[in-house]
Amino acid sequence: MELYVPILVLAVLAAGFAVFSVGIAPFTGPKRWNRAKLDAYECGIEPTPQPVGGGRFPLKYMITAMLFIVFDIEIIFLYPWAVAFDKLGVFGLVEMVLFIVTVLVAYAYVWRRRGLDWD
Amino acid sequence: MEPAEFITHSGGAIGVAWLMIALPLVGAAVLLLGGRRTDRFGHLLGVVTALASFVVAVLAFVQLLGFAPGERRRGIALYDFIPGMATKVGLLVDPLSISFCLLITGVGSLIHIYSIGYMAHDPGRRRFFAYLNLFVAAMLLLVLADNYVALFVGWEGVGLASYLLIGFWQHKPSAATAAKKAFIVNRVGDFGLLIGIFTIFATFHSLKFAEVFPAAHGASQGTLTAIGLLLLVGACGKSAQLPLQSWLLDAMEGPTPVSALIHAATMVTAGVYLIVRSGVIFQAAETAQLVVTIVGVATLLAGAIIGTAKDDIKKALAGSTMSQIGYMVLAAGIGPAGYAFAIAHLITHGFFKADLFLGAGSVMHAMNDEVNMRKYGALRKAMPVTFATFLIGYLAIIGFPLLSGYFTKDGIIETAMEHNAILGWLAVLGAGITGFYMSRLVFMTFFGAKRWEGDAHPHESPAVMTWPLIILSAGAIFLGGFLIVGNRFMTFLSPAVGLPEHLPEFNPVSLTGLVTLALVAVGAVFAWFRYGAAEVPAVAPRGSFLTAFARRDLYGDALNEALFMRPGQWLTRLAVFFDNRGIDGVVNGLAAGIGGSSGRLRRIQTGFVRSYALSIFVGAALLVGAWFVVGNL
Amino acid sequence: MNGTIQAPTIEYALLAPMLVVFGAAIVGVLVEAFAPRYLRSAIHVPLTLLSLAGAFALTIWQAAAKGIPTKAAAMGAVAVDGPALFIWGTILVLAFVSVLLIKGEDHFVAAASAVPGSAEEEQALHEGAAHSEIYPLVLFAVGGMLLFPAANDLLVAFVALEVMSLPLYLLCGLARRRRLLSQEAAVKYFLLGAFSSAFFLYGTALLYGYAGSIDLAKISTAVGSVGGQDTLLYIGAAMLGVGLLFKIGAAPFQAWKPDVYQGAPTPITALMASGTLVAAFGALVRVFWVGLGGLDWDWRPVLYGVAILTMVVGAVLAITQTDIKRMLAYSSIAHGGFLLVGVIATGKAAAQNASALSGILFYLVAYGFTTVGAFAVVTMVRDAGGEAWHLSRWAGLGKRSPLLAGIFAFFLLAFAGIPLTSGFFGKYAVFQAAVSGGALPLVIVGVVASAVAAFFYVRVIVLMFFSDPAADGPSIVLPSRGTAAVVGLAVLATVVLGVYPQPVLDLAHSAAQSLFVR
User: Fold this and answer.
1) What global pTM score does this model have?
2) How does it sit in the membrane (chain A) (predicted)?
C-alpha cells in the first residue's frame, strides 16, 4: 500500500484543485452574457444555419472508414494465423476460411446495398 | 365396525371422477365467458353437462360396487400444489361421496331439464344455467374432496352459487336483500368452519381425511370437542340450523328450481355431509355429539312450527326443509347408528322435496307467479299431473306407510328413541306437526274453493316440466323402502362411516311408529277441518300469539336484529370512525410517503444520458468502495 | 514463447444450437444481399423461426439423448452444462415467441435513415419499404444471448455480450412510430451499454492481472491461492459486477431501462425484457458462482445491498409511472431484484446452491413468458398515433374488451406473484431458497417490495375495470395470428406454471443439480 501513497496524494491534490477552481469561478468571476457565449462552439467559426429537423449530412466517408476497419481486423487475424500456420494445420485452415467467408458475407451485403458507391 | 382403509386408486370411471366436477364447470365457464353468443344453446349445454356428469357418477358407482366392501374407499391423487407441503389435493370416492354424487347429478339434471321450461321466457336464462352448472360443480367438489381445504373451496363455491341464484332477479330489492342475507349468515358459519379447519391443522398437521381420521383418537377430548363444535357452526350456517337458520326462508326469493335444487335437495344438506364425513371426530367428542342432536331437534321443531303459519307456499316448504334437515342432523349426531338413516333421509328428502318444490313452481307458473296459498284452491282439476306428483311428495314427507319418508324418517325417530327418549318423543311431535302443516299446504292449494285472482287461468305445465316431476315422485315412492329394508343402505355405507354394534331391525308395528302415524293422522285431520272443509279467508286472520310467533319466523330475525345488527351497526360506526381517523391515516400516510418518495426519486430519471452515465459511474465507485470495505473487514 | 501451439478441439455437436442460430443469421444477411425485396420477408420469417426451432430441438436432444456434459467445451471457453442447456431452451422459446410478435404487425420503420417527419420518410412509407434486416439482427442477438450465459471465460463472455448488445442497440432505434423517442432510446442504450462494457472489460483486465488467466475456473483457484493482490481482485471483481449488473438493470445501473424499454419497438422490448434478462442472469450467476465462488464472503454483502436497492427502486418508482411500457420496465427492474435474492441465496452446501439455482431458473422461465405476453397485449391497444401507452388511455379497457383486459390483468397478477399464477412459484422458489440460505432480512424486503409492487399492478387492473372508458379511447386491433398465438402461449404458460409447475420445477431442479461445470 505504501507504494501508492504518493500517487494517492497527487490524485487528491489534483482533484482538489480542479473542484476548487470550478467551484470558485461562479463566485469570483464576473457574469456577462452575450450571443457568442451562448452559441454552439464550432472552433470559432460562425455556425452554419441548419435546415429544420437537423438536416442530413453525408456519411460517405464514415462508411468507407468502417469498411476499412473491418478488413483491417481481418488482416490482424490473418497475421498470427500465418505465423502459426503449420502448427494449426487443417483445423486452422477451416476456421480461417469460415472467418473469411463470414466477413465476405458482410462485404457482399455492403456491395449489394450500394455501400461501395460514392454517389 | 370401523370404516374401511383408504386405498389409492386409478383407472376406470373412478379414476376420472374429476370429470364430474370438470364437465359442469366447463359448462359454466363457456356460458359465462361466451356471452350472448351462447344464448341460443346455453340451456341445452347446461343440461348436457349435468347429464354427462350424472353418467360419470353412475359409472363410478357401478365400478365401486365391483370392489369388495372393505375396499370401497378409493382415493385419487389429482394435484400437488406446493410439493412437500400439505397441499395435496385429491378426490375420495367412497359410498358416502358417491351417494351424494348420484343425488346431486341425478336430481340436479332433472331440475336442469325442468328449468328449460320454467325459465323459458326469462332473458337471463343462459346466466341462470351457468350458475346452476357452477353450483353443481362446486357441490360435487365439496363432497368428492379428500381433504378439508378442497371441501372448503367447494363449500364457498356453493355459497357463491347460492348467492348468485337467490339474487338472480336482482331488480327485485327483496331478492337482492335476501341474497345478501344468505351470504352474510353463511359467512358466520363459514368462519366457524374455517377456524375448525385451522384447529384440525394445528392438531393433526394435516388436512387430508386419510391422515386426520386415523389420528383423531390421539387428540385430547377438549380439542376434539372444540373442532366438533366449530364444524357444527359451519354446518348450521349451510344447513340453516338454529341459530343460523334465518336466511333460508328469505332465500325463497330465488327462482323456484333454485329453491328445489339448492335450498332443498342438495346444498342445505352439506352440513349433514360435513358432520357425517367428520363422524370419527364427533364420535370421539361426546359433548359435541350431544350439541349436534340438540340443534337437530330444536331445528326440526322450529322449522315445523314456522311451516304451520306461512301462507307463501315456498316459505312453508322452506320451513319444512329446515325441519327435515333437523331430522338429518339429529340422526347424524347419534353416531354410526344414525348415519345411514341421516343420509338415506337426505336422499329421499332430496327427491320428495324437489318434487314438492318443483310442483309448487309448476303451480306458481300456472298462477302468474302468485305464491300466496290463500289465493289458490281447487287446483287439482286444473293441474292433474302436478297434483298427482305433489300428492305423492306430500304423502312421502308426512311418512305415509310404505312411501319413502315413512321408512327413512321412522328410522331416524326409532334410532333417536333408542338413543335418548326425550329426543325421540320430540322428534315424534315434530312428525305430528309435519302432518299438520303439509296437509294444510295441500288442502289450501289443491282442495276447497277457488280463490283465484281475476286474471288467473291455471293450466297444466309443459311436458319438460312435468316429466321431471313424475321421475322425482317415482323416487319419492320407492327409494325409501329400497334403501332401508334389510339395512341395504346401512351396509352399503358402512365402509365410509362404520356400522353400529347392533343392526336395527325394521319393525312396522313398533310403539313409536304407531304413535307417530297416529299423530300425523291427527294433524292431517285437523288441517282438513280448518283448511280443507272450511272456508279459507283471503286475508290471514290475526290469530293467536303463537301464530304471530310462527309467522315471524319465531322472532329469529328480530333476535338477530337486536343481538347482532344494532350492536353491529354501532361497532361498524366505531370501526369506521377509527378506520378513518387512525388506520386510514397510517395507510394513507404510508401510501403518500411511498408515492412522494417515488415522485422525488423519479426526478433522478432526468432523461439525460450524461446523468445516467454519472449514476453508473457513482454506482461503480460505490460498488468498488463497498467491496473494499467488506473485503477488508 | 516456445511455439508449442496446439490445434484446439471444438465440440461442434455441443455448440450446434448456437451455430445453427449464427449460421441462419449469416444466411439472412445473404438473403438481404441477393434476394429481391419482395421475397425477403417471405424467406426471413420461416428461416428465422425454423432455425430457432431447430436450435431448440438440438438443445432438447442434447439434454435428453446425450446427457449433460461434465466438462467445458471448446478448450474450456464455453460451458454447455445443465443450467446452460436450460437457459438455452428458455431463450430459444422466448425468442421464437418474440419473432412471432415481430412479424405480427407493422412495428418497424420503413426507412431508418429518413429524418422523422421528412419527405423521404413519406416516400418510403408510400413505397412500402421495410427493413427486413431485423430478422438477421434478431438472430445475431439471440446467438449472443446463447453464448453469454455459457461463456466460461471472460473474453468469450465479453464477445458474447457485444454480439448480443450491438444488434439490440440497432433494433431499439427502428420503431415505426414515435421515431424520435426510439432513436433517442437507441443512442442512450448504445452509449450507456458501451460505457458499461468498458467497465466489464476493465474488470476482466484487472482480474487477468490478478489471476493470470481469464478462465473462470482458473480465476476461482487463484482466489484461494494468490496473496497480496487483493486490490486488483476487488476492483476487478467490482468492475465486472458493474458490467453484468448493468445488463440486468440492477440499481444503481437501472437508469437506461425505462427509457429504452419505452422507446424500443414493443416486440423488441419483449425480446429484451425476456431473452436478454435470462441471458444476463445466466452469465451473472456463472461469473459470480464459478469465477468468484471463493470470494462469496465479499460479494454476498455487496449484492445484498444491490438487491435491496434494486427491489426498492423498481417497486417504488413504478408507482408514479403513467406510461404502461415504463411501468413494465420498472417492474422488470424489481423482478431483477427478486432474482438477485436468489443469487445471494447460496451456501457452501451443493444442495443449497442447487435449490437456489433451480429457483432462479424457474423464475426466469415464468417471468419471461409473462412479460412477453404483457408486451404482446401492449401492441394490441392502439389509437391513432400507434400504441396507446399512457395509462389514462387504458381506463375502462375492461368494458371495451373484457377478454384482453382480463388477460392483461392476469399477467399483472402473475407479476405480483398471486398464487395459481406462475409468478407465485417463481417468487416462492427463490424466497424459499433465500430463507434456507439464511437471507431472511432480504426476503422480508423482497416481500415488502412485492407488496408495494402489487399496488401498482392492481392499480392498473382497477383502472381497466372500474374506470369509465375515455370517449375517444384506444381501439383494440384484431391481433394477427402471430400475436394471438403469443398471447395464448403466454397465458397458457402462466396458468400451467402456476397450477401445475411440477414438471418445469423438476426440469429446473435436474438442470441445477449438476451445477456449473468448471
Assistant:
1) 0.75
2) Multi-pass membrane protein
